[in-house]
Amino acid sequence: MTSDPLDPGAPRETPDPPARGLRRPLLWALLVIALTANAVTSVSSLPTAVGVTFGGVVALALGALLVRDHYRHRARTGGGRPPRNPDA
Question: pTM here?
Fold first, then answer.
């Protein structure tokens, strides 16, 4: 709860922000689109470079971004191993 700037004595409810935001669902949607585009280019007569771009470059980059997001969120929430303390 936070106070209303117009009436400092009146509390108001504020919704909690989403835990991950829109980044992760957007990355998943883009990954599915890239993999679908890779499948379509594999069975069509498009040049091989187009298929490699969707399958090799874009899909792997999106997968790496999803892994990075997972590990960053895990580190913030305290899941997994405790963080290393280089000063200890």
Answer: 0.59
